[in-house]
């Protein structure tokens, strides 16, 4: 029997960055379609415009500034552009989107050296920058199925809860607020976050394709459920139910598609659980005690910064050694 000697790695795969990103884009199609149904053509335009702008900017950076003449788009910029757009309000203008895309691609990604080297989720870097820079546009919400975007504005379920209290949720005249509408997505909010059903469908596809870190969303959502459940049991007339918190706002989009970013999340299963628990705690602290009704974007960026420490703490023990590293 002849043995061939060769340098590692000996385990090979046909996967590539492009294939992974294509799968993510496919997984986001259900949310894309629901957003188009609920918010109309403007939502479609914002999502496509953001994707094209992100791809064009990255192509310019790679081909012209970094002089990589053999660069071919791997669709990671499209994923960043689409996720950024799904975190935006319909009220943003084209030039505000361009600024958000610039911050996401340049400051959130390429200043660190490009894909695989960025510390923070690029789409959320752009989203938080836009929220701070353009607070009016980023917090102006339109009623679902009202396709004239200059007259019919309203508040999101989380904003109603924060500003007017729990009783107003059950008696809100602009649109119906219940677990069914929250699950389907016929509520106002950021373009791609409103439909939990569509996001779960896309998440199931990524699980099937083995592209996702399932422990992160499970530990994140479980932590939100436990903390909100405790407060709900203490005073159900003041605090919303756990299912309301899970289905409203950006928890589903953040937990299923943004916190699971393989570049900016921990590497080990133990690290995934710690990461998810931290996300849930920070999100609920902001929602329950902060002035801002939502906390998903900030929680993910904060936990992104802690990933190196989590990886050190959660590093598995080398076989044949003790916990102290001794043989």
UniProtKB/TrEMBL annotation:
UniProt gene name: rnfD
Role description: Part of a membrane-bound complex that couples electron transfer with translocation of ions across the membrane.
This enzyme's EC code(s): 7.-.-.-
UniProt cofactor(s): FMN
Residues modified as FMN phosphoryl threonine: 156
Family listed: Belongs to the NqrB/RnfD family.
NCBIfam families per record: rnfD (TIGR01946)
Biological processes annotated in GO: electron transport chain; transmembrane transport
Main location, first listed in the record: membrane
Transmembrane segments: 20-38, 44-61, 82-107, 119-138, 181-207, 214-234, 240-259, 271-290, 296-314
Naturally occurring in which organism (per UniProt): Marinitoga piezophila (strain DSM 14283 / JCM 11233 / KA3)
GO CC, any one term: plasma membrane
Location(s), subcellular: Cell inner membrane
Keywords (A to Z) from UniProt: Cell inner membrane, Cell membrane, Electron transport, Flavoprotein, FMN, Membrane, Phosphoprotein, Translocase, Transmembrane, Transmembrane helix, Transport
Keyword Transit peptide among record annotations: no
Name this protein carries in UniProt: Ion-translocating oxidoreductase complex subunit D
Pfam hit, one: NQR2_RnfD_RnfE
Membrane topology: Multi-pass membrane protein
Assembly information from the UniProt record: The complex is composed of six subunits: RnfA, RnfB, RnfC, RnfD, RnfE and RnfG.
InterPro entries per UniProt: NqrB/RnfD (IPR004338), RnfD_bac (IPR011303)
